[in-house]
Specification:
The chain contains eleven helices and nine strands. By secondary structure, it is of the alpha/beta class. This is Tripartite tricarboxylate transporter substrate binding protein BugD.
Length: about 325
């Protein structure tokens, strides 16, 4: 009797495996939704749209962008975590949305284990930019001004828990200044207010702020990288500006809901790899001072290691920000 039950169970498992395999082979049969955790126009949105277009070409189906802003990206990830694990809903995230958020919002309805990593798709570089009429011409003068006016400088970011918020935190900590960090529903509205001198500056990624700096709509102060950016050759690195402790090099990755079949993850990973190697994405990334991952960094395992590393990193850095 036991042998009969085992055989029936094995047969049932085999049927399920065959069905899953067949489903994966046909994937995708309709458009895919890519959730972006911020408003349109910000770094994650620009990178998502750039990569999604070429992934769609590789998969033979369009990828539709859905912007779900709020709570530093956790609103979007909550939605993504509840989606059917069938590959038709994926999300783009970063160290803020997929690592720091667990310290800042410890009662979230999802955990790092709620997501299956697909692939890292971009490396980004953080920049501090000021309103064009701010009374400081370089980082040294800015820090002196901030220390003479504690709490009076306000810097915008894309919401508590976002990668831009982490740029802000890293910067004010390294500079040893007291500044007010103002959260928005995305990087774009924060930048808009900086351009309009409604706030003193923004903590942003080169992908979304470079053009405004080059057009002199805002004033670039410093980039938290070890080398100058080709799109902003006059913007000093943190070491050149006298603040080597300020480091702001981030990542963007794609995630699917937990339980998404490995075969589908593999198809999405392959499409992401193909996308970032296209001339169209390389050119767009170069324009945005964004870098594609190295070939050996495209695996789901590498992205998982980044999440695990950064969850611990920000647990220590952001303990005082826990809600």
């Amino acid at each position: 009797m036991i042998s009969f039950v085992v055989k029936r169970l094995s047969a049932a498992i085999a049927v399920v495996a065959l069905a899953t395999s067949a489903f994966a082979q046909d994937f995708p049969k309709r458009p895919i939704t890519m959730i972006v955790p911020f408003a349109a126009g910000g770094t994650s949105d620009v990178i998502a749209r750039t990569v999604a277009e070429q992934m769609g070409v590789a998969l033979g189906q369009s990828i539709v962008i859905e912007n779900v802003a709020g709570a530093g990206g956790s609103t979007a990830l909550a939605r993504a975590s509840r989606a059917e694990p069938d590959g038709y809903t994926i999300a783009i995230g970063n160290a803020g949305t997929n690592a720091a958020t667990y310290t800042i919002y410890p009662k979230l309805p999802f955990t790092p284990e709620s997501f299956a990593p697909i692939a890292m798709v971009a490396k980004t570089f953080g920049i501090i930019a000021l309103r064009k009429d701010f009374p400081a011409k370089d980082l040294k003068e800015f820090i002196a001004y901030a220390k003479a006016n504690p709490g009076k400088i306000n810097l915008g970011h894309a919401g508590v828990g976002s990668s831009n918020y982490l740029i802000c935190k890293s910067f004010v900590t390294a500079a040893g200044i007291d500044a007010t960090l103002v959260g928005y529903r995305g990087a774009s509205p924060a930048l808009t207010d900086a351009i309009g001198s409604q706030i003193d500056g923004v903590c942003d990624a080169a992908a979304s702020v470079s053009q405004s700096i080059n057009e002199k709509l805002v004033k670039g102060l410093v980039v938290g990288s070890t080398v100058r950016l080709a799109t902003l050759p006059d913007l000093p690195t943190s070491a050149e500006a006298g603040l080597p402790e300020f480091e702001a090099q981030g990542w963007n990755g794609l995630f699917a809901p937990k339980g998404t079949p490995p075969e589908i993850i593999a198809k999405l990973n392959a499409a992401a790899r193909t996308a970032v190697e296209t001339d169209a994405v390389k050119k767009r990334f170069a324009d945005l001072s964004t870098v594609a991952p190295d070939p050996d960094e495209h695996t789901p395992e590498v992205l998982q290691k980044l999440v695990t590393r950064d969850v611990e990193k920000y647990r220590k850095m952001l303990a005082d920000d826990a809600k």
